[in-house]
Amino acid sequence: MESQVNREGPSQPERREQERVSAEAVCPTKKELLYQISGTASGKKQLTRYDFEAALAALDSGDAPEYWRSLEELAGTKEFQEQLHREFPKGASEWLDPVSRRGFLKLMGASVALAGLTGCIRQPLEPIVPYVRQPENQVLGKPMFYATAMTLSGYGRPLLVRSNEGRPSKIEGNPEHPVSMGGSDIFSQASVLDLYDPDRLQTMIYEGEIRTWPSFLGGVRGQIAAQQAVQGAGLRILTETVASPTLAAQIRGVLQRFPGAKWYQWDPVNRDNVRAGAQMAFGQFVHTQYRLTDADVIVSLDANFLSPEFPGFTKYAREFSSRRRPETNPAARPFTTANYTALPDRPINRFYSIESTPTNTGAKADHHIPVRFSDVEKYARILASAVGVNAGGGNANSDLDGKVLAAAVKDLQAHRGTSVVIAGEQQPPIVHALAHAMNEALGNVGKTVFYTEPVEANPTDQMAGLKELVSDMWVGKVDMIVITALILSTMRRST
Amino acid sequence: MLEPVRESFRSGRSLVWSRVNDLPDYVYFDHSIHINKGVGCRDCHGPVDQMPLMWQESTLQMEWCLNCHRQPEKFLRPREQVFNMRYEQPGPRQPVTLDGKAFTSQLDLGNYLKDKYHVRTVQDITSCYTCHR
User: Fold this and answer.
1) pLDDT tens digit sequence for A65-101
2) Nearest CA of chain B to the CA of A203: how many Å?
3) How far is A2 from chain B (nearest CA, A)?
């Protein structure tokens, strides 16, 4: 399309020059946008080749910093040092060069041109380019809504995306999905910007240069053949937590063909402790779900279950709030959503929160005990021993805490089968195991707490896996490593 | 005559149409309200049914827009006549009948239509914010 546009207008090259200079003065990224639209040769974005040699030399010399976020930082090149010290990238400084009278008038003229006041004469040619094959059901000007999902640490969040002529503009939860019921979270809302991220890879890149798919296949064929010869002993696959059955099946297919290969999953904020706690309690990995509509008493052990990090939090938020209604009159304020009818015949629930940092969830608590992160285990043991679990007991840090804990125990015992104890994601495995034991002792299993097959396709101890992978790499056992997109995108953003 | 369309379908490349009537991007222009309030196609776009190749008939300058916005009763026509390329404004010898009434002057008809179609006051539609949002 760019090549077909025949831009009319006075002094075309000069106009582009004006736009370029004043756009740089405005902001560096606008310059890039203008280049993409006008396609000037001088402005084509150059991808720089990574300087592997300098980085490797820095590693070998022993001078390298221990923590680094980009290869340039590791290499400590002069350009990088310069870039650190300049507040604005180099392009903007052309604005400060001594400007002749002619140049000054050009710049002033450029800002006028950009402001569009020259639109009085005749508009530059704006072509109308219709679809050749219009997407189904699309009426230009009317948005289309697509039901989709976004994965966050492996868990899919059901979403409804509003798309205007193929441009996603707003994300909401999918109102027909039983988990979200139309609710979304900050990560889902923010993810619409991910789709417009200029750093998002649009082509294949090899060492900083654009390549095609056939060239990738050709380059990797040799490696694959070499791995086949050794049954894949040097092949490693590193992914984020995979909950997709399709992806897991594909990876398992690869592992079958290369029996020596290994698959590791890694999320920086992962649920290793949850998995280890389940392993400790049940001897296998299970996924825990709660039904808070049936819970009269909720005790949270540093569990932030009303916050987006907690899987299924949209459901828990709705369920929790459906029980926060003080009215007992059935006619009062029916709570109407697709999946919930009013529950005014049930009394309001009571929520005890033991937490180590101020959270949204704790703010909703009726009784709130702030403790150090490491003390949550102690308090969990106190609670557990009181409800009949062999946990060792102990003493609370203060009298007030002791009183609140005693009250919580009394409440829990009075509501066997209609209470729930939730352990925080980041708490050590023993706290999770204690929570499981308490729920069991109180008879909550099957009523407010449900155990299902793990959602992850391949639940593992991710930290141990990563350590093994890194140690393998250090001794040179790894010839070929395949890293999937989500991890790579977080790495690339930090470069 | 339709060969470009067939070629576009075969190759998958869109037809690139040149935009003839184009306003600057800082102007907000809503086409639908003009059609719904009784502004005829021909008044702004000219006799397009007689154009072998489309051209821009009006200057589309702000003063040209304001010319009508300041006195809409001089230009309004019944909604049914908006697409009619042969429409003539009412005169003593060619009345325009609407709602059982025969109008012989454009000002009469225009004022009647201003009421009927709830055209906003001149002060409203000549305010800066109407177009420069």
Assistant:
1) 778 777 777 777 777 777 766 665 555 545 555 666 6
2) 21
3) 11
